[in-house]
Amino acid sequence: MREEHMKIVIVGHVDHGKSTLIGRLLYDTNSLPEGKIDEIKKTCKALGKELEFAYILDALEEEREQNITIDTTQTFFKTKKRNYVIIDAPGHKEFLKNMITGASLAEAAILIVKAEEGLREQTKRHAYILSMLGLNQIIVVINIFDLSKYTKKKFNSLKDEILKFLSLLNLKPSYIIPISAKEGDNIAKKSKKISWYKSLTLLEALDTFKTKENDINKALRFPVQDVYKINDRRIIVGRIEAGKIAKGDKIILLPSNKMSYVNSIEVFNKKKEKVEVGESIGITIKDPLFIDRGQVICHTNNLPKIASEFKAKVFWMAKENLNINERLTLRCATQEVGCSIKKIIKRINSSTLEVIQKNSKRLEETEVGDVVIKVNEPIVIENFNNVTELGGFVLVKGYDVVAGGIITNTP
Ligand code: GDP
């Protein structure tokens, strides 16, 4: 049986204990490389410091920088039930970009709040992004409870405040847990000190979540990454983002609407009869059609939308304002096209949730816009909740990713 993996993100305001919690999770689940913790303890001692769990993350990062074969954005830990992959998200820019661009969409999120400080600006922005992405498996952890004298009253008043804010975003956390990342309270073990808290630990709570339903039963979506010519053969490569494909299948290339049949399928130089979602493959087709990066291969029934204009929610993250009608590039799956924002229906403050202006001409840094986007040539799109890869996009200006967005209304 294949081991189960679940992707999670840990988000929250800076200094509320994210790195400490990640270090603690790795430590408590014995997920650190052999000898690592002793090494870190030694280093801390030599510097005259006590062991900080946040150093574990720093130490792992350093190691990764020296070893380019390790993925720099992912950290793993294991419980009895399954493996977890923490998608690294140091700030809201990386967070949104990592979440929206492709394979790294998290299935669950931990929102960390420092007890002494409660909801802060970044906590709220991150919560906004969770709601934008439709994430509904959320655990709120109230951290640094060791300094709050572990009172139930304090916990309850914070809990009310947090639930109230999240409900404005239509978010309903499955659990709210008082923890101390530093002391390890209610992470892997029940806290003796927070004795009034009788419910699940963080790891127990995570284990109750469901992994994303396999997209195997959805309609085929195979965005073309590249086409290689080897001798006389043209091999179309890419990753299947939904559904499955088999040798002999009738397929359609979008947006060109040309049809053909699958001649052969290859995975790592091995011929295969059929393959499914998540696999990176190469195929050859029967007819000599024009194929290019960005096209999407589907079966001829149940087609996605093709559009040159659609509604979206964008989170603007550049220092410079977004101006209506300015030229940008949109990337969605492997598609890349010129675009502009035709209309900003609403300009929203992503921390206070206030609507700043209707029918606006600009968006400022960290603001969210309900917008209409016009692309220079038709692209293949989906509703974000159906096929994430074709429903999420980033906007690029020059070489910088300046916004992340999700398609809210396909025409
Ligand atoms: P990040 O910016 O969210 O990654 O926050 P860090 O993990 O770096 O933590 C910020 C500071 O809070 C560090 O000095 C930590 O040692 C401290 N801290 C984190 N968790 C706890 C906790 O449970 N109890 C106490 N007393 N301090 C903590």
Task: Give your account of this protein's structure.
The chain is of the alpha+beta class. The protein folds into three domains: 202 residues, 3-Layer(aba) Sandwich (Rossmann fold); 84 residues, Elongation Factor Tu (Ef-tu), domain 3 (Beta Barrel), CATH 2.40.30; 105 residues, Translation factors (Elongation Factor Tu (Ef-tu), domain 3). The protein has eight helices and 24 strands. The protein has a six-stranded mixed sheet, with helices on both faces. It has a six-stranded antiparallel beta barrel with strand order 7-8-14-11-10-15. About 1% of the residues have low confidence. It binds guanosine-5'-diphosphate.
Number of distinct helices: 8
Please state the CA-atom Rg, rounded to the nearest Å: 23 Å
Please give the order of strands in the largest beta sheet.
Answer: 2-3-1-4-5-6
Bound molecules: guanosine-5'-diphosphate
Largest sheet: 6 strands, mixed
State the share of residues found in helices, binned by percent. Answer: 10-25%
Number-wise, the strands total 24
Q: How would you classify the helix and strand content by structural class? A: alpha+beta
Uncertain residue ranges: 68-72
Distance between the termini: 42 Å
* CATH hierarchy class name of the largest domain: Alpha Beta
Judging from the principal axes of the Cα atoms, what is the shape?
Answer: globular
Binned strand content: 35-45%
Total domain count: 3
Question: For the residues shown, what is the average pLDDT?
Answer: 89
CATH superfamily of the largest domain: P-loop containing nucleotide triphosphate hydrolases
**What oligomeric state do these chains adopt?**
single chain
